[in-house]
Amino acid sequence: MIEFVLDSRSKVNTYMQLVQQVKQALRVGLLTPGDQLPKVRDVAQSLAINPNTVLKAYRELEIEGLVGGRPGVGTFVQRTLAGASLPNQAELRDDLVAWLHRAQAAGLTAEDVIALVETTLRATLADDAPQKEPA
Amino acid sequence: MDMVLEADRLGKRYGSTWALRDCSLHLPAGRIAALVGPNGAGKSTLLHLAVGLLKPDAGTVRVFGRSPYGDTEGLADIGFVAQDTPLYRDFTAAELVVVGGKLNRRWDAALARNRLAQLGIPPDKPVGKLSGGQRAQVALALALAKQPRLLLLDEPVASLDPLARREFLQSLMGSVAESGTTVLLSSHLLADLERVCDYLIVLNASQVQLTGAVDDLVAGHRQLVGPRHDGGAIGGVAAVVRASHTDRQSTLLVRTDGPVTDPAWTVRDVSLEDIVLAYLADGSTQTSHSEWGVAA
């Protein structure tokens, strides 16, 4: 079971924050098919948010085929976003950690690293199909 | 869509002063609606009319299709917590649960006791000796024990500290998720409302300034920043809600009816709070200018 957190300073609206957190958990393998999402009532209560917002987020995930509702039981993960890349992630992460230490030694701040990653990502992956992130 | 509350040109007058005037609105079932406006805007008057404590002087108000004034049968479906949560202060919470059972046709005492136990409210202490937050929770538990289909809350969190306010909204959202009750709550605290409410009614100077689903309202308003604007039409703009100008630049909060594509304008999304403040500011300047007898 995952626990949702909200970023009150984020411009992203509440229901989209919930959608993104589930997707993030699916990507890193924190949620796998068969896992149950927190009950609507529990999310509404713990975050003090409108239950309709939680329903809207779960419906969006359902439309994308990532989760499915079982009436009277709850909402369950049907598909993962981790795909075949998940087993490779540990190794890539080790490489990244080593690289970050080198960046630090070279005098880059966290902001420098993020800026470098973002520009390089755009330049390197520019030929790929444009990735559409919801606003 | 099922309408829980409908008002048509509703008005209430105290002496020669209209506390509420020409109020027309609908509240669809299953919504959690915010009734927003400054003090004296008519929020409490509207709630009192909806629960039948006041008789309209003009127009009509209907709750579940019935006129609430003098309708004791319809009352069973309405829960109401008035401002400052008035309870019999010498009674204990446990006693109030018993009293509620005697005074109401439909009453789930077990539900109330469960809620109060979960919140750690002492059953044997006079509620007058409880903290403000605990008293608000007792009032909410009693209102929910009625199992109302419409819950009206007048400034439920205004007098609570931030922690008690959050705890109150947590129990409210949790119980609404379970019961599907339609909620109308008045408040002048905007920050709490954006996450809690999905429907908005803005009252100012006894009149409805704005009403609708929050998603639609946020999608239908934009902030435009551009060169000084003299009031001409802008493509995609249905109405300018609020405008401020410097000698070169204009900042407009507008209601849109299409995409604003004019490159002269920088278009920004707005929050619910931006919209509410723009409508409230707009209403108050209009009133004061007409009251002082000068041109706006």
UniProtKB/TrEMBL annotation, chain A:
Q: Which UniProt keywords apply?
A: DNA-binding, Transcription, Transcription regulation
Keyword hit for Cytoplasm: no
The record's PROSITE patterns line, in alphabetical order, gives:
HTH_GNTR (PS50949)
Residues forming the HTH gntR-type domain are 12-80
Q: Name one GO molecular function term.
A: DNA binding
**Is Aminoacyl-tRNA synthetase set as a keyword in this record?**
no
InterPro entries documented for this protein: Tscrpt_reg_HTH_GntR, WH-like_DNA-bd_sf, WH_DNA-bd_sf
Name of this protein: HTH-type transcriptional repressor YtrA
Q: What is the lineage of its organism?
A: Bacteria, Bacillati, Actinomycetota, Actinomycetes, Micromonosporales
